[in-house]
Amino acid sequence: MSTFSNNPLDTEITFLKGVGPVRGKLLNKIGIFDVRSLLHYYPRKFLDRTNIKPINQLKVGEEAVIIGEVINQGFRRTRRSNFFQITVDDGYGKLLCNWFNGISWISEKFHINQKIAVFGKVDFYKGFTISHPDYDILNKNEDPNNTGKIIAQYPSSASLKSAGLESSGFRKIISNAILHSNESLHDCFSLKFRNKIGLISYKEAIQYIHQPENKEKLNQAIYRLKFDELFFLQILMAKKRIYTKKETTKAYPKIGNYTKNIYEKLPFKLTGAQIKGMREIRKDISDSKQMNRLIQGDVGCGKTVLALLSASLVADNEGQIAFLAPTEILARQHYKTIKRLADLVGLKVELLLGGKKGEERNGLLDLIKNGKVQLLIGTHAIIQHDVEFNNLGLVIIDEQHRFGVEQRKALLNKGNHPHILAMTATPIPRTLAITYHGDMDVTIIDQLPTNRKPVKTFVVNSSQEHKIYKFIKKEVKSGNQCFFVYPLIEESEKLNLKSAETEYEKLSKNIFPDLNVGFIHGKLKPEDRDLRMKEFKENILQILIATTVIEVGIDIPNATVMVIENADRFGLAQLHQLRGRIGRGEKAGVCILIPSNDEVSERLKIMESTSDGFEIADEDLRLRGPGDFFGTKQHGYMKLKIADISKDGKIARIARKYAFEIIYQDPNLELFNHKRIFQKFKKEYAHMYAYLQTG
Fold first, then answer.
1. Per-residue pLDDT tens for 309-324?
2. Domain 456-610, what architecture?
3. Is the pTM of this model over 0.90?
4. What CATH homologous superfamily does 257-287+301-424 map to?
5. What CATH fold (topology level) applies to the domain 45-153?
6. Region of 131 on the Ramachandran plot (φ > 0 left; ψ -120 to 50 alpha; else beta)
7. At a CB cut-off of 8 Å and minimum separation 6, what does 215 contact?
8. Which of 198, 486, 510, 603 has the maximal Cβ count within 10 Å?
9. Partners of 135 in the beta sheet?
10. What are residue 375's DSSP bridge partners?
């Protein structure tokens, strides 16, 4: 990057007035390299001086702004450590402000008779207190009640604060940045477009997010900047969708005997959601444009049946199908479920796993290559280079987020742009689905079969374990089986969590010595895992101690009880997945959640009140955010600075509508009205643009 640029926004941060080399290096560490990235360093909260509260009217638990004078200050001592404290007097009462971290530099900020504004959450200990409040030092003659200011408060750290870059320091250099680049804050949207959506200009948004004149202008700025982020995220999705959709492939319009006979031999009626889903899939498969569809549904909603019916449509048209599952357990489960119906209609189904070797494997590879195998189910073994298809027409990928881009590509390359059908048993909040899976068409299966009984769920204190054990013994005596699930295999002193290994020893030897207790986890060899599951399925084992290896693909109709220890260590969506492993037969299931302590049990209460996976997913997203929703780190393209996918669904949907309209009209953003959109996409949202390039 050049020191001096024709565009002031590209000026290196070191050369901005008020920064310099020392501050510049510190700012570089938090991703601020130029004026543009400084302007996009948004406030974390705002100190609203338009709503000041007298100290005698404060309430514990509320966030409040208090303005007064410092009448006392100094270091205080507890039994464990020192802290710094000031006393603020506003004429109505006294407020204690405490700092437990960074006390050396914070102590230098205050002096007696100093006029300040403080903001934070009110507590009460020997009077009203606020710990680590945001603060704003005022001029002695300033009348804060009449200024009506809203003051930006910025994220900072001890090292930044030591260099004078607390909130007030950031406000000064950002003010300089706005003056430096004011004429370069061009808008990528036309006035007509902004008026249609109700957006203020980009220049106004930048100014009002950092220097809000009032609440209305601040809210307008926040809306505009959130819209920008979500709009460009949807531009990315639309471009990926266009890329996928323009691939031509073979159409499969014929409905033949395989599909008709399977449909007739189903032992149950399809739900309305399944019928709607099949219509969408059939329409896609009948088209010469490549299908790229996700079936998203709750545990037990019947996704596998839709996969089979989709496969039969392709088989009716002499195409082959590859069904990729993330684990051997899940692959075997799908194989067993599908083969039961496929055999009735003469559809040739085979299973390919990594353990298959020698002549047996070679013989199967020949059958696949010659088109004698119509539907191949398997794990990563399907992706290997020696697996060749005669006419691969459909690729089904279960739990697609568990596979990398290259793995998916390797399978797709075994055919000539085969249709793609992905499945996930994770109910994804609709807002997250249009971002995470925005490049796919989504079929939502939000109905469970009528014969499926809901699992009763209870959040129980660990002190009730003896009652739980008594209940399990009663269930086993009635011929039923039980899961115990733990988050860890080995004991963790750091986390102080119960481990599956330790508990297996205790439960098998001390609690249930007269029962057969098994232990399954991810570190076991595949053949050992399969043996344990076989023993459990055949009721040789009455109790199975497990980690999350059982989260998907385990179908034991006789298992009616699940106990999840340290339940607060799991996301709500993951807990829902786990409890979906029981109550899969005619018998109702009972799920018992035991949190690590009583204080964290409140979050789990929603599990007692609903069995709707989508409702639970919405709550999980609200509590945890999108970053780790899928059990993996947040995708690079989803790193949002101001928008919040868990809260900004309405803005996301509007942004999606206009982004897709623009990309369908002008895929490469070449039209005059769209050139600035492309430039901004490439420059300011480089992480999204880079993802598009790598795919």
1. 999 999 999 999 999 9
2. 3-Layer(aba) Sandwich (3.40)
3. no
4. P-loop containing nucleotide triphosphate hydrolases (3.40.50.300)
5. OB fold (Dihydrolipoamide Acetyltransferase, E2P) (2.40.50)
6. beta
7. 48, 50, 150
8. 486
9. 118
10. 321, 349
